Structure formats: C-alpha cells, structure tokens
Amino acid sequence: MEALDLWEAVEEDYDVPVLLKNPTMTQIKTHKEMKTKKSKAKACLFVAVSTTIFTRIMSHKTAKSIWDYLKEEYAVDERIRGMQVLNLIRDFELQKMKESETIKEYSDRLLGIANEIRLLGSEFSDSRIVEKILVTVPKRYEATVTTLENTKDLLKISLAELLNSLQAQEQRRHMRQEVNSEGALFAKHHGAYRNKRKEKKGQEGNSFAPVLNNNRSKKGSFKGKYPPCHHCKKEGHPPFKCWRRPDAKCSKCN
For the chain, which terminus, N or C, has the lower number of CB atoms within 10 Å? Predict the structure, then answer.
C-alpha cells in the first residue's frame, strides 16, 4: 500500500474538503486524488482478506476503521509471539541432516525456520546456523569441516562460505561416484559379453558331442558314416588318414 501511495489513507482518517464555487484545476485535482486514495485503500483491504473476513469488514466506511478492526482482531499478543519463537527455536535445535539430503536442502530447511523467527521480531544470527551445520552434518563432510577448523576461525566464517565449501565437496563426491558407477557398468557389460562368448563356444562344442558319441563304436573307435576306405577296405576313417595309403609316413622319423 505504501508502494501504491495509499498508506496515508489507512494510517489517518482524513476528511476530504468540499469543493468551493469556481474551483481551480489544482483544487479539483487534489480533491479527486484524496477521494480516490480512500476508495483504493478500502478496495485493497477488501481484496487482501478471505471471504469470511470480508463479511466482517464490509460494513466499515473507511480504510482506517477496517485496519483498526483487523489489527485488534488478528494482531498477535506478545506472550503468544514469545511462545511461537520458543517453539521455532526448539524445532531448530532438533534438526539433523538426513543421509539422503543434500547441503542445499538441509540449509534451506534451517534458513526457513530462522526466517520465521526473524519475522516474529526476534534476532537470529547466521552464526547460529553455521554452528548448527558444523555440528550436525554427516561424517562424509568431515574432511571439509576439519580443513575449515585448521585454516579459518569458525567464529568468523560466513554462512555462504561454509555452504560453498560443503557443496564443492558434495559435487566432487558425486562426480567420483558417477565415474565408479560407469567403470562398474563397463566391467559388468564386458564380463557379460565374455561369458556369452564362452557359452556360445561351449554350445558349439557340445553340438558335436552327440555326433562323436554316436560315431564311436563299442571298442572306442570312430565308426562314422565314412564309406569303406579304398586303401584298406575298412570303415571308420577317411582315406587321407589311412596308414595303408602310399604316402603314409611317420611324423617323427619320416
């Protein structure tokens, strides 16, 4: 309402002066502005409340009377405000970072509680949020916390600096996990490919086993579907492996 230049009509219930006879253009303009401000202020208040509250304030004639009624009806008592602050502080102290959370999600949760406390009129410094984060982060951030303890004064470190350091470690850890998962996936895929090739070879080898077993005679020699050898007139071997062929010779002594 201040941005719309209407707060004056709410803060002070001024009277709009009556125009005199033969008014000047300046007087007409001023009269119109003062009257319009009061009407716009009432309209803004009507729009800003719910339907239930609107039925309670619609009978008021001026914006100031509407504002006084709302302030008296809905203004929070100091005692109630103090209890709300205590409850929020208790909630803040009980917060802990979950294993599945990121630093941004955890800090946003803490900042949300801190901002609610500030809206109720109590002071809440960023240093308390820094201390809370340093104490409650999981062990995976211990390296960054130790580095900050050894290189900086934790009482003077800013919230933004702490969050940037923790988020940097979080990103590095996430990148390493992605690289490891990609390597494990490649190894798994390569191993599956090798096993598949072995199975294929095994199947190919096993496909010849029935034929070989069927071709074996009771004495252990092969009796395949070879025709009788024209060298020895016997079955069970091809002619080029027959020892009675003319060019047969020992592989050791020739």
Answer: C
